[in-house]
Amino acid sequence: MRIDILSLFPEMFEGVFNSSILKKAQESGTFEYNYVNFRDYTENKHNKVDDYPYGGGAGMVLKPQPIFDAIEDVKKRSDKRPRIILMCPQGETHSQKKAEELSREDHLVFICGHYEGYDERIREHLVTDEISIGDYVLTGGELGAMVVIDSVVRLLPGVLGNESSAPEDSFSSGLLEHPHYTRPADFRGMKVPEVLLSGNHAKIDEWRKQQSLKRTFERRKDMLQEYPLSEEEKQWIDEWNDLKK
């Protein structure tokens, strides 16, 4: 996968991309990235990339010309048609499902804005996706892009050491992930559930399935609205509801 990032502050990405899993993914050749400072493309003699909004109002708006020219240049250097992602608080809220969808692409381009917003022509004529990481506003799109890129790259084949790790993540199965325990089995009187020490993998799988559903039931009931519950799972939920009465 190739990832191009349009940003006025590309140095913000250095620590994230040169650490941990993302660094290993680069070194293995699983993905490559390129920073594009779209200020380098401005035709303004003062290197300005923003201007006052027509009609008045607070803040400054990113001009279309530098971003259009930067995207056109990025496209020339790729033989793949990229997904062009605008980081924007008005966009689709990012999700595991979206990360999985983007992980199947060969080329992603992220536009990270600053100031009050974007000239609407950028949104209408350049981008394929608008993504938000939550219902709040940041000073720029860089932090959001880091979150989305991390969630996508970790899903690429070979990035995580254990191929079963990603499919078992919270949200990947439609439920939150079950609890985890490690050594020691007894820590200050707090003990690991006996079933996990039993060696009976069928019972362990059933326990994990039940705990995953229970955790979702307790913390994110909204997720169960679209989850295809089995008859056994419905029975478990009925029992938990009875206990709450």
Plain-language structure description:
By secondary structure, this protein is an alpha/beta fold. It has helices at residues 14-17, 20-27, 64-76, 96-102, 120-125, 142-153, 194-197, 201-219, 231-244, and strands at residues 2-6, 32-36, 50-51, 61-62, 83-93, 107-112, 117-118, 129-132, 186-187, 190-191. Helix 8 (201-219) crosses helix 9 (231-244).
Please tag this protein with its features.
3-stranded mixed sheet, single chain, Alpha/beta knot, 10 strands, 245 residues, 5-stranded parallel sheet, Trp Operon Repressor, Chain A, alpha/beta, 17% strand, 9 helices
Short description:
The protein is α/β, with parallel strands linked by helices and 245 residues long. The chain has two domains: 2-153, SPOUT methyltransferase, trefoil knot domain (Alpha/beta knot, 3-Layer(aba) Sandwich), CATH 3.40.1280.10; 173-244, tRNA(m1g37)methyltransferase, domain 2 (Trp Operon Repressor, Chain A, Orthogonal Bundle).
Distance from N terminus to C terminus (CA atoms, Å) equals 51 Å
Secondary structure tally: strands: 10
What is the CATH class name of the largest domain? Answer: Alpha Beta
Anisotropy-based shape: elongated
Tally the helices: 9
Task: Please bin the fraction of helical residues.
Answer: 25-40%
Judging by the overall fold, what is the CATH architecture of the largest domain? 3-Layer(aba) Sandwich
